[in-house]
Amino acid sequence: MKSLLENINKAFDHRIRLAIMSVLMVNESADFNTLKELLGVTDGNLASHTRALEAEEYIVIEKSFVGRKTNTSYKATKKGREAFQEHLNALEKLANLSISR
Predict the structure, then answer these.
(1) Domain holding 29: CATH number?
(2) How far apart are CA 75 and CA 9, in angstroms?
(3) Residue range of the domain that includes 23
(4) What pTM did the predictor assign?
């Protein structure tokens, strides 16, 4: 029998990374300020968690200019979408686990 925790992805253990991926799963992209406002986190906190997701190749970070200001936006990669969906499926199985005695 497979472990119940086998498909729980450690990259999504932290609530901020879980929230970032949740936003990116239902939106094509999100910029830094939008994520910061939605999640109520500091600049440094958001930056460290997006870097962690980027290191796993679950998101891509795109930098551009809007006028003279830099704009950083994030998109979930195919790999990230698949990994997150597997994570959600594993959580759902765990949440629906019934033990008969």
Answers:
(1) 1.10.10.10
(2) 19
(3) 1-100
(4) 0.88
Alpha-carbon Rg of the chain, whole angstroms? 16
Buried b vs exposed e over 6-33: b needs ≥16 C-beta within 10 Å?
Answer: ebebebbeeebbbbbbbbbeeeeebebe
pLDDT of residue 1: 42
The alpha-helical segments, DSSP class H, found in 7-69 are: 15-26, 32-39, 43-55
Whether the per-residue pLDDT at 47 is higher than 90: the answer is yes
pLDDT in tens, 49-83: 999 999 999 999 999 988 888 899 999 999 999 99
Amino acid identity of residue 44, one-letter, is G
Report how many domains make up the chain.
Answer: 1
In Å, the largest CA–CA distance within the chain is: 65
Beta bridge partners of 29: none
